[in-house]
């Protein structure tokens, strides 16, 4: 996903001199093309995320579109107060990018698991949160992120996987139907979309049809659109996320459902990560350990409603 | 220990203007804080001369040019000194003088810490948590440098604020990137908010630290307009910082050098006493000015 991100950002930044990319001393290999082609629109600010965010705010005050880039929790959680006070409250065009969402850096240990970031960032006012599920969603997220006037948080997995969408998508701000909504429907966000798709495909092979919807934009949650998609048929909604069960996509949907003046009568369940993930390991290993591998998800989809 | 900078001396007229302005800023601040029963009077009074040398003098920004890309920028990173900053903005017509009385009132745009809002053009960004302003200033300075624009960026920090690690990230950054368009003041009044700087987290030797971070450092009397102006007029190829030796609560003898006045709001009586003292000290200051001129 990193490559798709950089390619798309570079393409846009070539003709938009407002864009300036700040890196927190990371991006080796990945950001090289951007740095090489647009050196005046790139600054490595060093391992100093609070300063990176403040500098981004200053650049934004000057009319730039400032992008901060780091990995895991560093872009967001490390400098949360700067994001809150210097970016969100003044609604500045600062776009915070975190590579390594979820368990992308599984072998690096828990310091590098970005699995509470959605919960934390959702509480900040005026912050759009984009969590693309494949490279097509990544490219559209980058376009949407730049086009939006205010603060954005874009969280990307590291490596790419085979895309789930057949081609480019129209918008990352809307719910995306991958498989038509059924009585039982799976909704997810981020790179887990691949595992979710594989689970749904596995179910189809054994005769069980499950709906699949991707939500690349967790905030603002496109609830009216999602509710109307689900209203027709869905009675059981399973929310799978590579994130804590606290405060992520499940919570966002539950909040919306509770607060909506009219909502489909849905039973809602979550598949998420427990607190204090045991151990470390590859993403696939950790997903499997915690019930989020394709086979584990498929088993949930086929079984009694959890 | 003052560093002499080779600049032509300011005129008597300018010095008088600054002395009078600092007096009015102190007076307005005392009035606002007394009425609002707010804190931070000591923190405000220590920067009266600094603000008086910037607003209406050296800082190139007016209500008319508050949005101009060519303006100078000012960031009050020690955002708790909001009262005197609002007073400086009122002095220059950014906000109406009458609005100062609404400081900390319910629903007022003049919050206890500097808050950007549409009612007060000239406030670039809000600051209340320490350690944010210098980074923002660096971002502005960086863009100005990259675009070849000759704006100046001023940031005022408190001494206690330098406890925040984020300040040092910014200090490293500005030194490394030669942000020569940056002029920073440290309001070095030696008292932070639960003890003296020396007993809490001693910054000394501060000048040495900042020089090591590749800044051009000037130590000056933060209550002497000549020194402040000389610092502002000086150019360098490095980022510039003035360690302004100041007195917390300066201008009102019973407030000077007292931690208490970081917090306590003056009573009406104390305000009256303070105002009288300010009046007296203004006369003395002007007399001294005229004597020196002869």
Describe the 3D structure.
The complex is a heterodimer of chains A (306) and B (294). Chain A has 306 residues and is of the alpha/beta class. Chain A has helices at residues 2-13, 32-37, 49-61, 80-88, 117-122, 135-147, 192-205, 223-231, 249-259, 283-289, 294-302; strands at 19-23, 42-44, 65-71, 94-99, 128-130, 152-156, 176-179, 184-188, 211-214, 217-219, 236-244, 267-273. In chain A, β3, α4 and β4 form a beta-alpha-beta unit. Chain A is globular. Chain B is of the alpha/beta class and 294 residues long. Chain B is 44% helix and 10% strand. In chain B, β2 (153-158), α6 and β3 form a beta-alpha-beta unit. In chain B, α1 (12-36) packs across α4 (82-91). The radius of gyration of chain B is 18 Å and the shape is globular. The A-B interface holds A 20, 40, 43, 45-46, 48, 50-51, 53-64, 66, 81-82, 85-86, 89-90 and B 69, 73, 116, 124-129, 131-144, 146-147, 165-166, 169-170, 172-173.
Question: Which labels suit this protein?
Answer:
heterodimer; A: 306 residues; globular; B: alpha/beta; five-stranded parallel sheet; 44% helix
Strand order of the largest sheet of chain B: 1-2-3-5-4
Total helical segments of chain B: 11
Span between termini of chain B: 26 Å
Major β-sheet annotation of chain A: 7 strands, mixed
**Beta strand count of chain B:** 5
Most strands sheet of chain B: 5 strands, parallel
Q: What count of helical segments of chain A does DSSP give?
A: 11
Average pLDDT, all residues of chain A: 96
Envelope shape of chain B: globular
Shape, principal axes of CA atoms of chain A: globular
Fraction in helix of chain B? 40-55%
Radius of gyration of chain B: 18 Å
Q: Name the poorly predicted regions of chain A.
A: none
Distance between the termini of chain A: 32 Å
Secondary-structure element order of chain A, N to C: HEHEHEHEHEHEEEHEEHEHEHH
Give, in order, the helices and strands of chain B: HHHEHHEHEHHEHEHH
Task: Count the E strands of chain A.
Answer: 12
Q: Which strand-content bin applies to the residues of chain B?
A: 5-15%
Radius of gyration of chain A: 19 Å
What's the oligomerization state? heterodimer
Query: Pairing-aware structural class of the strands and helices of chain B?
Result: alpha/beta
